[in-house]
Every structure is written in structure tokens, then in C-alpha cells.
Amino acid sequence: MTDEFPKTTVLVQSRNLGYGRAANVGLERCQGRFVLLLSPQVTVDPQCVGRLADLLLTRPDAGAAGPRLEYPDGRRDPDSRRAFPMPSTLFYQTIGLSKLFPKSTRFGRHNMGHLPDTDVHEIDAGTAACLMLRTSALDRVGFFDPRYFMFGEDLDLCYRLKLGGWKIFYVPGAAATNHARPPSRDKQRQLSYERHRAMWTYHFKHHSEDSSAFGNGLVWAQIWGRYVAERVRDSVRGGNRQAT
To answer: CB within 8 A of 183, min separation 6: which ones?
Structure first.
């Protein structure tokens, strides 16, 4: 990379630090007004970066802006515009109501399906796979929380931005493509564990003090019960594939 782009700075790490910790290493070196978080599996359209920057330039109250992020087959990446997770939205996802009623204000709230995805609008959180941040906002709220290893760090950061008075916007005119490939079975097991661990970390950090011990126990049981159900379902599917 440095041969093709001589001005590029490559920060090589000796081990896998997790997304948040690794990103923090780079964020500490950034000096511009804005910084673009970009996963290596994401490609951006020619106008994407400029349009995200334009939004931040015209909205001084915006701390972050995310693009319309899609998969190669045209499906929208659901993490590109999200509401902050709540026990109720997790419950609706677990029992399938969010899929049955994706445009419902109540049941489809987590992925904001009730709002048109063709208009610029405020969101609770985007995804660190492709998200432009205002450096001055980061200076005030801090970088990624290193307690998250693979998931949840972007939700946590967006939540802190909101608490700090900053707004976060979805910009559909800025387009990007997520070329994520299906993980192997072993990798899927790790991803599932880290995803659910991040759910509990987020809840415990931001909402546990506002809930009773019983309420926190219900959330814990819901999160890890969902993890167990997911692992059982994947094991059954794997066994069926081997049998055929």
C-alpha cells in the first residue's frame, strides 16, 4: 500500500486488538476536521466521501454522518441506520415481529424501517463499517470504548455523541457497498458470542443503573437465551447439511 500511496501511514499491530482498540490507534493520529471510519470490506462510490463531508460542513450540530450502505445484491445493510437498542426492540427481534412488520413505528423501530430510506434524516446510530465523524466531537466524548471487541463499539460511541448534544445523520445520497462474505461455522460461533456479549456490555454500561435487579436479570436472560437459541438453530442446520 505504501508503494502505491506513498503518503499513507500504515499502523501495523502485532495482534488482533479488536475493532475499537485498533481504530483508536488510528484515531489518535488523525488531525483533520473529519475522519472516515471504513471497513476493508466496504467500497465507497465516488461521491460518497464528499457528500458525507458536505453534511457535516452544513450541519455544525452533526457529530457523525453515515451513507446508504448496501450489499452487492441491493439489500440495505440494516446497521446503516439504527435506533438505540432497548429491551423491547430486542424482544421484537427475538420473536420475529421486526421482520414481519419492518415498517412499523413500534416493531421496526430498531432499524428505523418506519422512515423513508431515500431522505436525509437524523438517526440514533450508524455503523463503523462506514461512518464519518467530526474530530472536535470525538475530542469531547472520547474514542471507542475498548471493552467492546467486535460489535457494539459504534452504538456506544453514537450514544455518547448524543449525550454530548451532537446529532447523527443518515445520508442516502452517499452510497457505499458492503462486500462482507458469509463466515465459516467456527467464525460464526465467535461472531455470535461477541455480538451478544456486546449487547450486554452496552445495556450494563448505559441502562443497568436505571433498572431494577430483576429488570437487569430479564435483559441478561433475554440476551443470552437468544444466543443459546441461535447456537442450537445453527447446530441443527449444520447437522442437516451433513446428513444430506
So the answer is: 191
How wide is the angle at C-alpha 168 spanned by C-alphas 127 and 148, nearest 5°? Answer: 40
Q: How far apart are CA 159 and CA 143, in angstroms?
A: 12
**Strands, E assignment, the chain:** 34-38, 42-44, 62-70, 121-123, 130-134, 167-178
Residue 52: which CATH number? 3.90.550.10
Residue at grid coordinates 503518503: 7
Q: What is the pLDDT of residues 163-172, one digit of tens each?
A: 999 999 999 9
Residue found by looking up cell 440514533 in the block: 124
Whether 46 and 153 map to the same domain: the answer is: yes
106 pLDDT more than 90: no
Cα torsion angle, 121, 122, 125, 128, sign: positive
Q: What does the block give as the cell for 57?
A: 460542513
Q: Is the pTM of the predicted complex or chain greater than 0.90? A: no
The pairing of strands 167-178 and 62-70 is parallel
Look-up of cell digits 456486546: 198
Pick the closest to residue 24 from 126, 100, 133, 99 (CA basis).
133
